[in-house]
């Protein structure tokens, strides 16, 4: 009651004063209105107008604050989503770089293996050519030796044939000389046709050997004459 009794004095000395009870219950202000003259404005109505204007501004500011709060929340949510996308993009980029590094390493390894295979193929080709050359050289040496052997055999055969022919010719000349010097032939030439039978005694082994040698010489002589 003391507070209610002191209100008119406060209103009289401080027209802009508003207590909490009056702010909560604006209709109580009507009980303390003082009669004013028509020419003098009522300060309480001015205060009420200012209060209504302030409340309207407060409502507008509250709406703006709510809008800004919602916009801030939306911006924060967008920032979080952008941050998540950026993190995902960074992880994907790191994975892509790692995969690229692995692919590059695999490509380098494949290139090195290809170069090594190419070098080994060249080396194997060189070894193959060298082996073929060695085989050809060996074959040429063997062929030359064979040709020399055949030539030597032919030369020896020709030499033996010539020796046999020369021996046969020499034997023929000796036989003719003996026949001419034979006294029986001379007697036949002089008119005597009487011949004494003579037997030549030869050893069995020597006869066979000499007969075989004469036969070979005759054959060689015939071959030479037929050429």
From TrEMBL:
The coiled-coil segments of this chain are: 79-113
Q: What is this protein called?
A: Uncharacterized protein
Alphabetically ordered keywords of this record: Coiled coil
Family matches, as InterPro entries = BLT-like (IPR043424)
Organism superkingdom: Eukaryota
């Amino acid at each position: 009651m003391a507070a209610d009794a002191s209100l008119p004095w406060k209103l009289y000395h401080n027209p802009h004063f508003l207590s909490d009870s009056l702010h909560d219950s604006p209709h109580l202000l009507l009980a303390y209105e003082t009669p004013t003259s028509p020419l003098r404005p009522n300060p309480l109505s001015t205060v009420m107008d200012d209060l209504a204007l302030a409340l309207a501004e407060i409502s507008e500011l509250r709406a703006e604050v709510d809008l800004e709060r919602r916009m801030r929340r939306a911006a924060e949510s967008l920032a979080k989503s952008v941050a998540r996308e950026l993190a995902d993009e960074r992880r994907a980029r790191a994975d892509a770089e790692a995969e690229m590094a692995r692919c590059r390493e695999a490509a380098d390894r494949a290139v090195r293996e290809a170069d090594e295979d190419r070098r080994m193929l060249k080396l194997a080709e060189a070894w193959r050519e060298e082996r073929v050359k060695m085989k050809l050289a060996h074959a040429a040496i063997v062929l030359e030796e064979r040709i020399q052997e055949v030539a030597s055999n032919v030369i020896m055969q020709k030499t033996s044939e010539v020796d046999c022919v020369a021996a046969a010719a020499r034997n023929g000349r000796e036989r003719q000389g003996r026949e001419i010097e034979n006294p029986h032939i001379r007697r036949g030439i002089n008119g005597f046709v009487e011949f004494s039978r003579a037997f030549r005694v030869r050893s069995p082994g020597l006869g066979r050997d000499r007969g075989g040698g004469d036969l070979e010489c005759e054959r060689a002589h015939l071959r030479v004459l037929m050429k």
